[in-house]
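As a warm-up, study this chain.
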Amino acid sequence: MPWSPDLLRPGDVLVLALPSEHRELAETALERGAHVVSVTDAEPEVRALLGLGTEARERELYVVVGAGFGPGLSCILARHAATLFDVVTEVHVAKAGTGGPACARQHHQALSGGSIDWRDRAWLRRSAGSGRELCWFPEPVAAQDCYRAHMPDALLLAPAFPTAVRVTARVAASRRDRLSSWLPMLRPPHPEGLIGALRVELRGRRGSSQEAAVLGAIDRPAVAAGAVAAVSAAWAVSRRLGRVGAGGLALLLSDPVPFLHELAGRGVRAAVFEGTSPSRPGAAPGRPAA
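Now compare it with the structure written out below.
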Protein backbone atom coordinates (compact mmCIF):
# COMPACT_ATOMS: atom_id res chain seq x y z
CA MET A 1 0.00 0.00 0.00
CA PRO A 2 1.47 3.44 -0.93
CA TRP A 3 2.46 5.65 1.99
CA SER A 4 0.00 8.32 3.06
CA PRO A 5 -0.21 10.34 6.28
CA ASP A 6 -3.84 9.19 6.48
CA LEU A 7 -2.54 5.74 7.40
CA LEU A 8 -1.58 7.20 10.78
CA ARG A 9 -5.13 8.14 11.71
CA PRO A 10 -5.88 4.84 13.44
CA GLY A 11 -2.22 4.07 14.18
CA ASP A 12 -0.35 4.31 17.47
CA VAL A 13 3.20 3.82 16.18
CA LEU A 14 5.08 4.37 12.91
CA VAL A 15 8.00 2.06 12.11
CA LEU A 16 10.44 3.63 9.65
CA ALA A 17 12.45 1.08 7.66
CA LEU A 18 13.25 3.06 4.51
CA PRO A 19 16.70 4.38 3.53
CA SER A 20 16.05 8.11 4.07
CA GLU A 21 13.59 10.91 4.94
CA HIS A 22 12.99 9.64 8.45
CA ARG A 23 12.84 13.11 10.05
CA GLU A 24 9.95 14.38 7.90
CA LEU A 25 7.87 11.25 8.40
CA ALA A 26 8.64 11.22 12.13
CA GLU A 27 7.42 14.80 12.47
CA THR A 28 4.16 13.83 10.77
CA ALA A 29 3.75 10.88 13.13
CA LEU A 30 4.32 13.04 16.22
CA GLU A 31 1.79 15.59 14.99
CA ARG A 32 -0.73 12.74 14.67
CA GLY A 33 0.06 11.53 18.19
CA ALA A 34 1.94 8.39 17.15
CA HIS A 35 5.19 7.01 18.50
CA VAL A 36 8.12 6.51 16.10
CA VAL A 37 10.53 3.60 15.72
CA SER A 38 13.35 4.08 13.21
CA VAL A 39 15.82 1.40 12.12
CA THR A 40 18.20 3.89 10.47
CA ASP A 41 21.95 3.42 10.85
CA ALA A 42 22.90 6.60 8.93
CA GLU A 43 24.48 9.37 11.00
CA PRO A 44 22.62 12.30 9.31
CA GLU A 45 19.26 10.59 9.84
CA VAL A 46 20.10 9.80 13.47
CA ARG A 47 21.14 13.40 14.16
CA ALA A 48 17.91 14.69 12.60
CA LEU A 49 15.72 12.32 14.62
CA LEU A 50 17.49 13.15 17.89
CA GLY A 51 16.56 16.75 17.19
CA LEU A 52 12.92 15.79 17.80
CA GLY A 53 13.59 15.10 21.48
CA THR A 54 11.94 18.25 22.83
CA GLU A 55 8.81 17.82 20.72
CA ALA A 56 8.52 14.14 21.65
CA ARG A 57 8.83 14.93 25.36
CA GLU A 58 6.22 17.68 25.13
CA ARG A 59 3.82 15.27 23.43
CA GLU A 60 4.83 12.43 25.82
CA LEU A 61 5.76 10.20 22.91
CA TYR A 62 8.72 7.96 22.08
CA VAL A 63 11.08 8.36 19.13
CA VAL A 64 13.21 5.22 19.22
CA VAL A 65 16.26 5.88 17.04
CA GLY A 66 18.45 3.16 15.54
CA ALA A 67 16.21 0.24 16.52
CA GLY A 68 17.94 -2.35 14.35
CA PHE A 69 20.89 -4.74 14.61
CA GLY A 70 23.68 -2.24 15.08
CA PRO A 71 22.73 0.24 16.38
CA GLY A 72 19.77 -1.29 18.16
CA LEU A 73 20.63 -4.67 19.58
CA SER A 74 24.11 -3.29 20.29
CA CYS A 75 22.54 -0.50 22.39
CA ILE A 76 20.50 -3.03 24.38
CA LEU A 77 23.61 -5.13 25.04
CA ALA A 78 25.50 -2.04 26.21
CA ARG A 79 22.72 -1.12 28.63
CA HIS A 80 22.66 -4.69 29.96
CA ALA A 81 26.44 -4.86 30.39
CA ALA A 82 26.39 -1.56 32.29
CA THR A 83 24.63 -3.27 35.21
CA LEU A 84 27.93 -5.05 35.94
CA PHE A 85 29.68 -1.77 36.79
CA ASP A 86 29.47 0.95 39.36
CA VAL A 87 30.84 3.44 36.81
CA VAL A 88 31.10 2.95 33.03
CA THR A 89 34.14 4.69 31.52
CA GLU A 90 34.34 3.23 28.00
CA VAL A 91 31.97 1.70 25.44
CA HIS A 92 33.28 0.06 22.26
CA VAL A 93 31.04 -1.47 19.59
CA ALA A 94 32.02 -3.56 16.56
CA LYS A 95 29.70 -4.94 13.89
CA ALA A 96 30.09 -7.52 11.13
CA GLY A 97 27.67 -8.23 8.31
CA THR A 98 24.81 -6.40 6.59
CA GLY A 99 21.09 -6.85 6.11
CA GLY A 100 19.23 -5.91 2.93
CA PRO A 101 20.46 -3.86 -0.05
CA ALA A 102 20.02 -0.48 1.68
CA CYS A 103 22.06 -1.73 4.64
CA ALA A 104 24.78 -3.02 2.32
CA ARG A 105 24.98 0.35 0.55
CA GLN A 106 25.19 2.16 3.88
CA HIS A 107 28.02 -0.16 4.96
CA HIS A 108 29.85 0.57 1.70
CA GLN A 109 29.52 4.35 2.13
CA ALA A 110 30.39 4.26 5.83
CA LEU A 111 33.99 3.31 5.07
CA SER A 112 34.60 6.61 3.29
CA GLY A 113 34.62 10.11 4.74
CA GLY A 114 34.85 10.56 8.49
CA SER A 115 33.88 8.70 11.62
CA ILE A 116 32.83 10.17 14.94
CA ASP A 117 34.10 9.14 18.39
CA TRP A 118 33.32 10.43 21.87
CA ARG A 119 36.62 11.05 23.63
CA ASP A 120 37.29 12.99 26.82
CA ARG A 121 33.73 14.36 26.70
CA ALA A 122 34.13 15.90 23.26
CA TRP A 123 33.35 14.78 19.72
CA LEU A 124 36.33 13.76 17.65
CA ARG A 125 36.33 13.23 13.89
CA ARG A 126 38.56 10.48 12.52
CA SER A 127 39.10 9.15 9.00
CA ALA A 128 36.79 6.30 8.12
CA GLY A 129 38.69 3.15 7.18
CA SER A 130 41.45 3.89 9.72
CA GLY A 131 42.13 2.45 13.17
CA ARG A 132 42.39 -1.21 12.24
CA GLU A 133 41.59 -3.48 15.19
CA LEU A 134 41.24 -7.26 15.30
CA CYS A 135 37.90 -8.02 16.99
CA TRP A 136 36.65 -11.42 18.07
CA PHE A 137 32.98 -12.10 17.41
CA PRO A 138 30.91 -15.16 18.32
CA GLU A 139 31.52 -18.23 16.15
CA PRO A 140 31.35 -18.82 13.25
CA VAL A 141 32.20 -15.17 12.43
CA ALA A 142 35.21 -15.26 14.81
CA ALA A 143 38.11 -12.83 14.22
CA GLN A 144 37.60 -9.91 11.84
CA ASP A 145 39.60 -6.79 11.03
CA CYS A 146 37.44 -3.82 12.02
CA TYR A 147 37.84 -0.15 11.13
CA ARG A 148 36.43 3.23 12.02
CA ALA A 149 33.40 4.05 9.90
CA HIS A 150 30.76 6.71 9.42
CA MET A 151 28.45 5.15 12.03
CA PRO A 152 25.99 6.81 14.45
CA ASP A 153 26.54 4.54 17.45
CA ALA A 154 28.45 7.08 19.54
CA LEU A 155 25.63 9.62 19.10
CA LEU A 156 23.23 7.15 20.71
CA LEU A 157 25.52 5.66 23.36
CA ALA A 158 27.30 8.74 24.75
CA PRO A 159 24.08 10.32 26.16
CA ALA A 160 23.16 6.98 27.75
CA PHE A 161 26.50 6.72 29.60
CA PRO A 162 27.38 10.23 30.84
CA THR A 163 30.38 8.95 32.81
CA ALA A 164 32.01 7.42 29.71
CA VAL A 165 35.13 9.20 28.45
CA ARG A 166 35.43 7.04 25.30
CA VAL A 167 32.73 5.70 22.97
CA THR A 168 33.77 4.17 19.64
CA ALA A 169 32.27 2.06 16.87
CA ARG A 170 33.93 -0.06 14.20
CA VAL A 171 32.77 -2.20 11.32
CA ALA A 172 34.32 -5.36 9.90
CA ALA A 173 35.71 -4.84 6.41
CA SER A 174 38.03 -6.43 3.90
CA ARG A 175 40.84 -4.68 2.08
CA ARG A 176 38.65 -4.51 -1.03
CA ASP A 177 35.84 -2.91 0.98
CA ARG A 178 38.16 -0.14 2.10
CA LEU A 179 39.78 0.49 -1.26
CA SER A 180 36.47 0.60 -3.14
CA SER A 181 34.50 2.63 -0.60
CA TRP A 182 34.90 5.84 -2.62
CA LEU A 183 33.41 4.17 -5.73
CA PRO A 184 29.89 2.94 -6.53
CA MET A 185 29.32 -0.62 -5.42
CA LEU A 186 31.07 -2.95 -7.88
CA ARG A 187 28.20 -5.43 -7.85
CA PRO A 188 24.57 -5.30 -6.70
CA PRO A 189 24.05 -6.23 -3.04
CA HIS A 190 22.31 -9.46 -2.06
CA PRO A 191 18.55 -9.30 -1.34
CA GLU A 192 19.42 -10.20 2.26
CA GLY A 193 22.80 -10.39 3.93
CA LEU A 194 24.21 -13.58 5.39
CA ILE A 195 25.21 -14.14 9.01
CA GLY A 196 26.29 -11.09 11.01
CA ALA A 197 27.64 -10.46 14.49
CA LEU A 198 27.95 -7.83 17.20
CA ARG A 199 30.56 -7.27 19.87
CA VAL A 200 29.93 -4.75 22.66
CA GLU A 201 32.72 -4.11 25.17
CA LEU A 202 32.33 -1.97 28.26
CA ARG A 203 35.05 -0.94 30.67
CA GLY A 204 34.69 0.70 34.03
CA ARG A 205 35.00 0.46 37.77
CA ARG A 206 33.42 -2.02 40.11
CA GLY A 207 34.34 -1.28 43.68
CA SER A 208 38.03 -0.44 43.68
CA SER A 209 38.97 -2.50 40.60
CA GLN A 210 38.96 -1.80 36.87
CA GLU A 211 36.81 -4.31 34.97
CA ALA A 212 35.83 -5.16 31.39
CA ALA A 213 32.81 -7.03 30.06
CA VAL A 214 32.04 -8.16 26.52
CA LEU A 215 28.65 -9.22 25.18
CA GLY A 216 28.09 -10.58 21.71
CA ALA A 217 25.34 -11.70 19.37
CA ILE A 218 25.19 -13.55 16.07
CA ASP A 219 22.25 -13.60 13.67
CA ARG A 220 21.13 -12.51 10.25
CA PRO A 221 21.16 -8.71 10.64
CA ALA A 222 17.88 -8.18 8.82
CA VAL A 223 16.09 -10.75 10.99
CA ALA A 224 17.52 -9.35 14.23
CA ALA A 225 16.73 -5.78 13.15
CA GLY A 226 13.13 -6.75 12.43
CA ALA A 227 12.78 -8.33 15.86
CA VAL A 228 14.27 -5.31 17.65
CA ALA A 229 12.01 -2.91 15.73
CA ALA A 230 8.91 -5.04 16.41
CA VAL A 231 9.55 -5.30 20.15
CA SER A 232 10.38 -1.57 20.29
CA ALA A 233 7.07 -0.74 18.61
CA ALA A 234 5.13 -2.98 20.99
CA TRP A 235 6.89 -1.51 24.02
CA ALA A 236 6.26 2.04 22.80
CA VAL A 237 2.53 1.42 22.40
CA SER A 238 2.31 -0.22 25.84
CA ARG A 239 4.55 2.51 27.31
CA ARG A 240 7.06 0.04 28.71
CA LEU A 241 10.09 2.14 27.77
CA GLY A 242 11.75 4.05 30.55
CA ARG A 243 11.38 7.63 29.39
CA VAL A 244 9.65 9.64 26.67
CA GLY A 245 11.64 11.60 24.10
CA ALA A 246 14.09 10.73 21.33
CA GLY A 247 17.07 8.44 21.77
CA GLY A 248 18.56 5.02 21.29
CA LEU A 249 17.49 1.98 23.26
CA ALA A 250 20.46 2.32 25.62
CA LEU A 251 18.93 5.61 26.78
CA LEU A 252 15.20 4.84 26.59
CA LEU A 253 15.30 1.40 28.23
CA SER A 254 15.31 1.36 32.02
CA ASP A 255 15.54 -2.45 32.30
CA PRO A 256 16.94 -4.33 29.26
CA VAL A 257 16.40 -7.84 30.66
CA PRO A 258 12.68 -8.19 29.78
CA PHE A 259 13.43 -6.77 26.34
CA LEU A 260 16.19 -9.34 25.85
CA HIS A 261 13.84 -12.10 26.98
CA GLU A 262 11.31 -11.05 24.32
CA LEU A 263 14.02 -11.03 21.68
CA ALA A 264 15.14 -14.49 22.80
CA GLY A 265 11.57 -15.69 22.34
CA ARG A 266 11.90 -14.57 18.72
CA GLY A 267 15.19 -16.41 18.30
CA VAL A 268 17.53 -13.43 18.78
CA ARG A 269 19.95 -14.31 21.58
CA ALA A 270 23.03 -12.71 23.11
CA ALA A 271 25.89 -14.24 25.09
CA VAL A 272 28.60 -13.11 27.47
CA PHE A 273 32.20 -13.61 26.39
CA GLU A 274 33.99 -15.66 29.02
CA GLY A 275 37.73 -16.02 29.51
CA THR A 276 40.73 -14.30 31.01
CA SER A 277 40.79 -11.59 28.36
CA PRO A 278 37.84 -10.63 26.13
CA SER A 279 40.23 -9.29 23.50
CA ARG A 280 41.83 -12.68 22.74
CA PRO A 281 40.49 -15.75 20.99
CA GLY A 282 40.33 -17.68 24.24
CA ALA A 283 37.44 -15.49 25.31
CA ALA A 284 34.74 -17.41 23.49
CA PRO A 285 31.08 -16.53 24.04
CA GLY A 286 29.65 -18.63 26.83
CA ARG A 287 26.60 -18.27 28.97
CA PRO A 288 23.46 -16.41 27.76
CA ALA A 289 23.37 -12.68 28.49
CA ALA A 290 19.90 -12.84 30.01
